[in-house]
């Protein structure tokens, strides 16, 4: 049967094509990173947790590691296009069983990262509304945002990109304004000490690097939209590298500016005293109280935009698994008009809603337990996923360089493996410092165990598929090709997948 006569179910498993250019991909990746949230919360928390001023240096180190990773990662994206991104890369590089194991970790981590943002979103909205004389519980505000995000998640991907573009431009403009104001109002003059190798060290260095990685999470998302991108061989790579560069500049400049405005000797104490409000307090003192309020409002839009971006990423991972029938095929369905992964989007919306309700009913702290603990734990899972993907890139190109250069397929990927493995080791070793709990506490031990268990469950499921559903197993990691095999029975394509093309 020719591929053009595929049944309706195969057509409904197709994402929109040629919808996103480089800037649209940038909107998704930059908003997922939530630069304003990272600076207002993450950077200030890092000063308090680390007790030292080498935060800008930490961002330089992580930016260099991720840039090395992006060299092989984006090169591999030219040969593999799949909405499951790193799941597909690991399946094609390390094997189908590790690929499904990675998929379990990826889907859980992205879902947890998105759900964690509802905690910060609700608390921020509660504070902003309280300043206007309105009393609204955090969970009510979170549910309003949850409903909006769920609605946008089922719409065409280019509509989402336009919404994110507006929010992102305003967010970055305010960050640059606040940073420029900090540099213009130095406490003790401009110092290069924060960039000195001696400014970052000791046990806290691992926690700083882990938090720095979390600040960049989202940079990898352009590959998720490869099927929906225009000229994906160029746009995906451009957007990925540009995201790392832009975020590195923003994080280094903003963290350095806070040190400059507060002073080297006082910044740690100031961060510990006001970990979520220091940046806005500085803006209020320097530019007027109105700007501090504006910053808090924009923090609300920043978190909302990030939640929308992570919602779209999670939905596409679930869609990729459903399309290949690794999980229920219903998750692989797309809407006829928008070609959006509506079934996977609704599943992600349901999970987010359940998390908000559970936290509200149990009276758990939305900022500490939901945003910080869950979000940071998800970041560790994604760091492990990125590290595994780095090794998959090496193995994939070690078998065949696919006509690519030595730098893109061997040198940079191997260096990325060494660097990311080191960061992951330090992050897990000092995870208790990152969470602000005592060494030996159960939570820092529990998180790696949970992700290891997820990986083992995924591997076990893949082994089951290998025995019970060999046709499904053979299509793991092959995206639209796998759909074509399962939907049409095309022997030629099936053989192509079996040979590992």
UniProtKB/TrEMBL annotation:
Xref: Pfam families: AA_permease
An example Gene Ontology CC term for this record: membrane
Bilayer topology annotation: Multi-pass membrane protein
Keywords associated with the record: Membrane, Transmembrane, Transmembrane helix
Coiled-coil boundaries: none
Main location: membrane
One annotated GO biological process: transmembrane transport
Domain named Amino acid permease/ SLC12A: residues: 43-426
Transmembrane among keywords: yes
Cellular compartment(s): Membrane
Transmembrane region(s): 25-50, 56-76, 97-121, 127-151, 163-184, 204-225, 237-259, 297-319, 340-364, 370-398, 410-434, 446-465
Protein name in UniProt: Amino acid transporter
Source organism per UniProt: Glycomyces harbinensis
